[in-house]
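2024-03-11 09:14:02 INFO worker-7 job=invfold-0412 stage=load source=structure_tokens
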């Protein structure tokens, strides 16, 4: 893994050429990830967890942490009182770090929308920070998330301003209702934190 200068990590990881390279890069980065993203990224998982908590009726529901990484979002959710948190990620190395946090009910190594993902139990809320980005996940994956929800659920995710147009067609569907939007000026290209209420009108997958 190359030596990453502060603030260069984003450019490096987003230049991954394909799925396997992205997974391998995260695997190699896993034990240094938190130190590298450190103070810049620190407010994001907590802000996302707070936004999800605001729109979930209670803390009893099952939450899916998509692209759980090293578990920063899981820790924030657990601190807010959520107890049923499933984490998924493509990188076994990142999931090993997440497991050490001891806050997840289960951790599953899979990619959004693949067969293993579609066999997960239905959840009440989904949270995804740092996942919808260049070379990570896009509109196809965003659309696949709604199929993981019970008939109605809440999705909170981040995307940089320049990436939002790629997601717009999915976000404009009538089943998706914007609940909240917050700009976090942590990069030159601002980070949007958004919450949607989604009606899942799809049929497949486990109940
Ligand atoms: C920038 S990290 C964010 C981790 C964590 N959510 C946080 O806020 O610290 C993005 C994570 O998403 C995972 N990821 C990327 N694309 C994915 C996909 N299509 N399905 C599942 N996980 C994915 C990566 O392996 C990585 O751990």
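2024-03-11 09:14:09 INFO worker-7 stage=emit residues=207
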């Amino acid at each position: 893994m190359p030596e990453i200068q502060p603030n260069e990590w984003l450019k490096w990881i987003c230049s991954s050429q394909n799925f396997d390279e992205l997974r391998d890069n995260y695997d190699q980065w896993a034990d240094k990830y938190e130190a590298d993203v450190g103070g810049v990224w620190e407010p994001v998982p907590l802000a996302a967890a707070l936004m999800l908590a605001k729109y979930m009726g209670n803390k009893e529901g099952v939450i899916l942490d998509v692209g759980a990484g090293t578990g920063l979002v899981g820790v924030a959710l657990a601190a807010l009182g959520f107890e049923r948190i499933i984490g998924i990620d493509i990188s076994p190395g990142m999931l090993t770090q997440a497991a050490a946090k001891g806050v997840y009910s289960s951790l599953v190594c899979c990619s959004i929308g693949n067969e293993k993902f579609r066999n997960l139990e239905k959840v009440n809320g989904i949270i995804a920070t740092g996942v919808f980005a260049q070379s990570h996940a896009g509109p196809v994956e965003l659309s696949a998330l709604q199929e993981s929800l019970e008939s109605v659920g809440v999705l909170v995710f981040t995307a940089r301003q320049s990436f939002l147009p790629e997601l717009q067609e999915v976000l404009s569907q009538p089943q998706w209702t914007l609940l909240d939007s917050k700009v976090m000026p942590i990069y030159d290209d601002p980070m949007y934190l958004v919450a949607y209420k989604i009606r899942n009108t799809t049929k497949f997958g486990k109940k």
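2024-03-11 09:14:09 INFO worker-7 stage=report msg="The chain has one domain: 43-199."
2024-03-11 09:14:10 INFO worker-7 job finished
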